[in-house]
Amino acid sequence: MVSRAQTTLAVREGCVEHDGARLAWRLVGQARRLPMLVFENGWSASFQQWTLLQPLLAPHTQLLFYDRAGIGGSAHGRGPVANRISSDLDALCRSLNLSRPMVVVGQSYGGLIAGLHGAQIPSRVCGMVQLDPTPELDDPLIDGQLALFRTIGAASVLIARLGLPNPLFAPLWEHFPKAEAEQLERLSYRSAASLRAALAELQLLASIRQAIRSQLGQRRQPRLVISAGSPSAASGWLARRLHNENKLRRTLAAMQAQHRKQVERGLGGSWELAAAHTHGGLVSSPDGAAFSATRILAFLQTLASPA
Question: Which residues does the UniProt record annotate as the domain AB hydrolase-1 (predicted)?
């Protein structure tokens, strides 16, 4: 375990072994009146993706960042199973003696994982914030895009193994401190092992959705679902060649419709459109991170307010 200071906030980092996995984690700040925040990273990303939100949120409550098994700075010697994802988080919290109620914040595929935790470990999860999440419901257009993404991901594994710059994804962390940006790139998008594990996790999409559906009616955690309002610009020279503006806009509209459905199923939630922000920009741009942090803190305040 390594301890260091970021301004006046305590930052601890380390690894926890559980069920054949080694989970890398970072714990920031101290327990306060508000629920603690646990962050679920997007596809193949390490927890450095939250670099811009960390200083905005840490003065208000305790933050737990971690990498899922096999991804980023974590490792595993086992095949992926949907229910292990939540049991890993539960074991990590127990190892760190974190027993307070938590709000899970997830972006992209991490937003879907937040829903999984709400279903599988409801005694720990008192709420969730899903930032432009992978939908919990099937959708032909979105699922077709995810199938294409699996092909792109497989190509990325090969590119990473060859040690070549990835022509599909341009860096999205230009606003990050240099050390955090380099770590994110090395652990995530230039790591063949992390990309392979992320592809295996993506294969769990149907079973994750089923696990969430199976618990409907048994859980009512409050949730805030935020949809990106602007289409993402193509990143990387090859992605720009494959760019299809009309398909991107149709996918954006389908995502927004699915997000509204997630909060219309009587689970105690609300939906918001981030009109000026893109999918990745909600965490990787200064304006998007500030918007997301403001909404997360407002959501926390509603949970802390007396009924």
Answer: 38-239
Phi first, then psi, for residue 75 (nearest 5°) are: -140, 160
Give how far the C-alpha of residue 81 lies from the chain's centroid of Cα atoms, to the nearest Å: 18
Give the span between the Cα atoms of 171 and 166, in whole angstroms.
9
Q: Is the pLDDT of residue 267 over 60?
A: no
Contact 106, 68 (CB under 8 A): no
Q: Whole-model pTM?
A: 0.92
- Give per-residue pLDDT as tens, 60-73: 999 999 999 999 99
Give yes or no for a contact between 9 and 59, defined as CB atoms under 8 angstroms apart: yes
Evaluate whether 40 touches 105 at the Cβ level (below 8 Å).
Answer: yes
Structural domains of the chain, ranges and CATH numbers in brackets: 2-304 (3.40.50.1820)
Length of the chain in terms of residues written: 307
294 alpha-carbon distance from chain centroid: 17
For residue range 135-194, list pLDDT tens digits in order: 999 999 999 989 988 888 888 899 888 887 776 666 678 899 999 999 999 999 899 999
109-120 vs 205-214: helix axis angle to the nearest 10? 40
